[in-house]
Write a structure and sequence with these properties.
single chain; mainly alpha; transmembrane; thiosulfate dehydrogenase (quinone) activity; EC 1.8.5.2; Thiosulfate dehydrogenase [quinone] large subunit
Length: about 180
Amino acid sequence: MTTARVQPGRDGYGLMRGSFGDVMFAVTRVAIGFIFLWAFLDKLFGLGKSTPSEKSWLNGGSPTAGYLSNLKGTFADTFSGIAGKAWADWIFMLGLLGLGLALILGIGMMVAAIAGTVLLVLMWMTALPISSNPFLDDHIIYALVIIAIAATGAGLRYGLAPWWRRVTAGQRWLW
């Protein structure tokens, strides 16, 4: 088994340690993570930004019902069928929480990239057809950025990723 040689001043991904680009990817990773975590908290507690308190998940509201049941577009019928279902609410909320925490902390990035891309593509599908662009919107851009961060490791130095990589698989599952 061969090991890759790391150039002096570079991390395991070949990026300059502490470079401006590395810092900017870290800031971008945390910012996108905060978008997911904020959506989770707002829907859970009804903080009044997009979810009023009386419609919060803790007050019996459904995080998927209002949005998915009012869609008009290509996949409206498909998504309206799962609107308000308990399993859809749980998967959606756990997805928002997990993605938010993984991105903010900089851990589990490959899983976050895959799960985040699935969630974002599904959210993109709910918006079709897109009124401002024939194909591209912010959901696709977020997915591409998350994939890029996970694939390159850019910005992961500023988070728990170095510690996370040292933890053995057994320790991770016990944790």
